[in-house]
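tool=predict chain=A
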Amino acid sequence: MKSACAGCVVPHLVEDLVRVVVDPNLPAIPCRTGDLEPHHDDPVVVELNDGVFLGRVTLFAPPVFRPPHRGAGGRILRAALDEDVERAQRLVEQERNALTYLRRRVKELRLEMRPLKVRFSLEGRKAIVLFLAENRVEYGGLVRDAARRYRRRFEMRHLGVRDGARAAGGLGPCGRPLCCAGFMTRFHSVTVRMAKRQKLSLNPAKISGMCGRLMCCLSHEVDQYPDPKKR
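tool=predict ok
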């Protein structure tokens, strides 16, 4: 069933730029519309640096105030067809199978890494693997095994701990989805001083997120509290 906003033209503050949800666990991506006039919840085929993917135009995201940095955005190629939607649905199941396979092979090969997500491009034979690792890992054998099994060219992307938490998704201690995987489009500096200013516990277990770093939400409301330096 279509959303109540279906048919609404998506407003945007930068000409020919709208936000498109490519991965429901990650923030929407600013994409150039070209000649297409997008509406909320329209399925579209978008081209990103990692390949071509299916996405949906969203109204429920911050408007695009400025052009994205090089490599951070994409462009809408065309409106998605029924066969594009069906193919994307089949790829989701293949991605899950590939992630399960990679995690099993990582244990068998005794590699010190953790695969988080696999993304298959809609067109072509390309797969992107997002993973976490504390040290440099020789994953050549893993890539060859995966390429032979799925007949795709696998590219490995090493993520930092904060980007890894965003890619994995989940719920924070507040019970809501992680800020980084929801509305945040970039990471901000967070310090213990922000927690002190809000009179929060300085226990690391209580002010640290899934990534092990200070929670991003500490910076969201810090300006609402009096600054001791200005007294």
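The chain has a mean pLDDT of 83. Helices lie at 82-109, 140-150, 161-168, 192-197, 204-207.
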